[in-house]
Write a structure and sequence with these properties.
The complex is a heterotrimer of chains A (298), B (310) and C (258). Chain B has 310 residues and is of the alpha/beta class. Chain B has ten helices and 14 strands. Chain B folds into two domains: 227 residues, Rossmann fold (3-Layer(aba) Sandwich); 60 residues, 2-Layer Sandwich (Alpha-Beta Plaits), CATH 3.30.70.980. A six-stranded mixed sheet of chain B has the order 6-7-8-3-9-10, with helices on both faces. Chain B has a four-stranded antiparallel sheet with strand order 2-1-4-5, covered by helices on one side. In chain B, a hairpin with a 5-residue loop joins strand 1 and strand 2. The C terminus of chain B is likely disordered. Chain C contains twelve helices and no strands. Chain C is mainly alpha-helical and 258 residues long. In chain C, helix 3 runs antiparallel to helix 8, helix 7 packs antiparallel against helix 8 and helix 7 packs parallel to helix 12. The chains are: A mainly alpha (298), B alpha/beta (310), C mainly alpha (258).
Chain lengths: 298, 310, 258
């Protein structure tokens, strides 16, 4: 019997070594795959035939396609790609397979409409997707918000945005701020406060961490823009009053134009430039600002 | 040298829903077979004969104990070159022909191509399958399959041949042929170990036998010794009922019709009986010796008795 | 040792060839490939694309079916019919037996795959309007399909060594299906948290990675397949198969037969 045990021992060693090697090889394959899939060319079948072949598991298949869309988008973004051709087809198939997959419409539209390299840069496709979502899920008023967002932010079509918010506010169960948003869109579309309102609603409407991050960064940027503008106004006032530019913030405080050293949202003091401009200490922390960094216009 | 040594081989199966209780199929078995012997392993169906052979061949694994074949551990694959095995009711790859099967098996047993070419036709002839040709085994009768079985057991010229019920499924002609084959193998000096429940075969072929019953060894011995253990008797028929009184002490039983007495006497007492009958002037009609057979030994050892008789 | 494994392997191959199941499937596949041009009628200009997709997918799928159908009985039949008794009474180690059976079935599938591929190339030449240099890439896809056979056969053998044919077939087929989705499994695992994450990751690595071996759509679109992909896929298929066969022999070495 000893012979049997010894043989089994050798076999066990072979098994463990081979399995470990296999896992290592497949891990390596996985990383190669990630690089090459950024290269595109996914063979996408028509969703009708997919639905037929899915043997009733179309919901699961929809989830798979949605997950693929997310992976695809993530991989492209990391690679700073400018081309996201397969994103809309993937989202279209996922929502054909499961028309009630709300997250695919919501987050998918955001991914689609943002300008590259942050998104696919296809706001019109995003609108198509959302309109499909609305057709299939007429009770889900939040789609109208996203629709409005896309029209406002990426298509710059304030009238269409207003329309979307109006439609949405009429869906039973819609929260009152939809009406407010519609009104805001009609009267004060170009203002910073409107943008801030929209970004914070967007933040509330999604669970996707990347979208939330973007929204909060935009909100911070808007705040910085407002603060920089206000600070530069004070500087101008000071100049008019004092006849010269302030040297430091302390000058402004001494003369009552400010109550203390102004800090940016990260807690760092704003920098007062010699030409009277105001900048943030670290522009890298504030993507999306239009005021307050040397690359933005003054 | 000792061809086969069984050293306390035993096998128990876990039975029951939770696999908790043990059912012994074979109690620890101790047995030795000398080289060149023809050894019979006797027992009724279900006694444990096939279990023993499966353990020896490594088809199942023992709960305890071991064995040695030709001096080597029974699980040593190399020793199988010296062993030929015919299982009970064998089944072979039915899509092969007899020559193909023998060729395949001979390859696995390490017979060279040259040797195979020589031996296979000769062997097929020897077992009476020369006419089988290229016919696939699925078309063979039971008897033909048994012959193929014997053939594959000896194609590699093993030293020890182990057969499980070699006569099963054969008609009288077939059985005689197999018997003759075994005699031939015996005369070639091979050790033969076969199990059977047919006593006449064992009586005719074996040097020694062992009796196994309900997984336990009940008796081992030389056939002649075992046969003579059961007292031989003789049946004596004579005219002269008057002599019966004189010999009544010697008679085991008697039957009287008119003046004729039919009496059974143990063979040791036949001479004394004849003397006394002559002295009484009785007329002897016939004297027929009745030899005890293995059957009695077998039956007496396969009853519900404890212990082992040597 | 090698001689014995070779004998057993060749005998397994012979048995598969004499088993007429094989022929029916080959005919079926040929029919399928021959009917591919009909698909071309539906979308003009995509004949070649569809032909390649249908053809290679058919070769892959039917090969897997044959692998499973024959594989489930590979060891089980020998035990049930007791043909193993006279094999084990010879100087054949149990592991040699398993390896021999495996190689025999692999040989069968490779030969079968090559035959089907020949038919496929023929159909391609005729209906796809000739063969070009780019079609050499198809050979890589076929090579990967053969690697896939190695894996599926090994898995089926593993199940066959301890389970009845029906269960073996179910498990093997399940592993195959899940195996084609390992890239999605990994995505799910990446998005999950906690226990689910670990379970999914374990599943993604234990189940055979057949999605990497499927380059059918890539070659259909005439995209190249990198050399490192070929290398790692080959290594993976060999190592995984060795592991599965080793597991099968581990079980079989100590198993009481009927």
């Amino acid at each position: 019997m000893k012979g049997v045990s010894r043989t089994r021992g050798i076999i066990a060693v072979v098994l463990v070594v081979a399995l470990t090697g296999a896992i290592a090889a497949t891990y390596r394959l996985g990383s190669i795959q990630v690089q090459t899939s950024a290269d595109d060319e996914l063979y996408l079948q028509s969703s009708k035939s997919l639905k037929r072949f899915s043997l009733g598991f179309s919901g699961l298949l929809a989830d798979i396609y949605w997950t693929r869309a997310v992976q695809y988008f993530g991989a492209k973004r990391i690679a700073h790609s400018m081309h996201y051709e397969s994103l809309y087809p993937l989202l279209d198939i996922a929502t054909d397979l499961d028309p009630n997959l709300l997250v695919a419409y919501q987050d998918g539209a955001i991914f689609l409409s943002a300008a590259p390299p942050g998104g696919a840069g296809e706001p019109d496709r995003a609108v198509d997707l959302l309109e499909k979502g609305v057709r299939e899920n007429p009770d889900y008023w939040r789609f109208y918000f996203t629709l409005g967002f896309v029209h406002y932010m990426d298509r710059k079509d304030f009238a269409a945005a207003h329309n979307a918010f109006v439609r949405g506010s009429e869906v039973p169960g819609a929260l009152p701020w939809m009406r407010t948003m519609a009104a805001t869109m009609a009267e004060r579309a170009g203002e910073r406060t409107t943008a801030a309102a929209i970004w914070s609603r967007l933040f509330e409407s999604t669970q996707d961490p990347d979208i939330r991050e973007t929204a909060s960064q935009h909100l911070t940027a808007l705040r910085v823009d407002a603060e920089v503008e206000a600070l530069e106004d004070r500087v101008r006032l000071f100049r008019e009053k004092a006849g010269q530019l302030p040297g430091t913030w302390v000058d402004l405080v001494r003369f009552g134009f400010l109550r203390g050293i102004p800090l940016d949202p990260t807690g760092k003091p704003y920098r007062l430039q010699t030409d009277g401009g105001v900048q943030v200490e670290d522009p890298q922390r504030f993507p999306f600002i239009t005021h307050g960094s040397s690359s933005s216009s003054k | 040298m000792v061809a086969l040594e069984i050293l306390g081989l035993s096998k128990s199966y876990s039975v029951g829903f939770w696999r908790k209780s043990l059912k012994p199929a074979l109690h620890p078995l101790h047995l030795t077979v000398e080289e060149g012997e023809t050894f019979g392993f006797l027992g009724p169906n279900g006694a444990g004969k096939t279990t023993t052979l499966k353990l020896l061949m490594g088809i199942i694994f023992p709960t305890a104990g071991s064995a040695r074949i030709m001096g080597r551990d029974f699980h040593d694959s190399e020793v199988k070159r010296l062993v030929g095995f015919l299982p009970e009711q064998p089944y072979f790859y039915d899509y092969l022909s007899a020559p193909e099967l023998l060729d395949y098996y001979a390859q696995l047993s390490g017979v060279t191509a040259v040797e195979r070419k020589k031996r296979i036709p000769a062997l097929l002839d020897r077992v009476g399958l020369a006419d089988a040709g290229g016919k696939q085994l699925r078309k063979f009768s039971k008897g033909m399959l048994q012959r193929v079985g014997i053939a594959q057991a000896i194609i590699h010229d093993p030293e020890i041949v182990i057969l499980d019920e070699p006569m099963s499924g054969l008609d009288p002609v077939g059985r005689r042929e197999i018997r003759e084959l075994i005699q031939q193998l015996k005369s070639e000096g091979k050790t033969i170990f076969f199990s059977t429940h047919i006593l006449s075969d064992a009586e005719a072929l074996c040097d020694r036998v062992a009796v196994i019953y309900k997984g336990e060894l009940r008796g081992v011995g030389v056939v002649e010794d075992l046969k003579s253990k059961i007292a031989d008797t003789a049946e004596v028929v004579w005219h002269g009922v008057h002599a019966l009184e004189r010999v009544s002490g010697l008679i085991i039983k008697s039957n009287v019709i008119g003046d004729t007495v039919r009496g059974v006497v143990s063979s040791g007492n036949t001479d004394v009986l004849l003397e006394r009958l002559r002295a009484e002037r009785a007329r002897l009609i016939s004297l027929t010796p009745v030899h005890g057979g293995l059957e009695d030994y077998f039956i007496s050892h396969t009853s519900e008795r404890e212990g082992v008789n040597a | 040792m090698i001689a014995r494994i070779g004998s057993i392997g060749f005998n397994t191959f012979r048995e598969a060839v004499r088993d007429r199941v094989l022929y029916n499937l080959i005919v079926f596949v040929l029919l399928l490939v021959a009917s591919a041009p009909l698909f071309g009628q539906i979308s003009i200009g995509l004949e070649k694309l569809i032909l390649i997709n249908v053809g290679l997918s058919a070769i892959s799928l039917f090969g897997v079916i044959i692998a499973i159908l024959i594989g489930i009985g590979l060891v089980y039949k020998e035990i049930e019919k007791k043909t193993l008794y006279t094999i084990l009474s010879r100087p054949v180690r149990r592991w040699e037996f398993i390896v021999g059976k495996y190689l025999g079935l692999v040989l069968t599938l490779v030969v079968n795959g090559i035959l089907m591929s020949a038919g496929f190339f023929l159909a391609l030449a005729v209906f796809g309007h000739g063969l070009g240099r780019a079609d050499a890439a198809l050979l890589i896809a076929i090579y990967f399909i053969l690697l896939q056979f190695l894996i599926v056969t090994a898995i089926t053998l593993l199940f066959s060594s301890f389970s009845t044919p029906i269960f073996s077939a179910v498990f093997a087929f399940a592993f195959f299906v899940i195996g084609t989705m390992t890239d999605d499994l990994r995505s799910f695992a990446a998005a999950a948290k906690g226990i689910t994450k670990w379970l999914l990751t374990a599943a993604a690595y234990l189940v055979p990675n057949l999605s990497s071996l499927n380059v059918i759509s890539r070659v259909a679109h005439e995209r190249p397949v990198g050399g490192s992909v070929v290398l790692y896929n080959t290594m993976y298929a060999l190592l995984y198969s060795v592991a599965a066969v080793a597991a099968a022999t581990f079980i079989f070495e100590r198993r009481d037969l009927k």
